[in-house]
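Students often ask why we bother encoding 3D structure as a string. The short answer is that it lets us treat folding as translation between two languages. Here is a chain of 76 residues written in the first language.
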Amino acid sequence: MAEPQGLGSQPGWREVALVAAAVVAVVLGAAILTSLLPTAIQDVVFHTPVAIAVLVVGTGWLLWRISRREPGAPDR
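And here it is in the second language, the structure alphabet:
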């Protein structure tokens, strides 16, 4: 069956493994950096919804960027 025009091929297992490894590295890095913070700042990070705020802001930024892309423009 022919691939629909305008769509790229699906990522293979190598690309998926690289993205998964990058996500694990970022999470481990965040855990290490958080452990190095002073106790007062750790309390703020652990007892307030900082992660939720970061996810909401990041999702909003991503959706804004997608909505501003011109139709037919190549992905970066």
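Translate back mentally: Residues 14 and 20 are 10 Å apart (CA to CA). Keep this in mind for the problem set.
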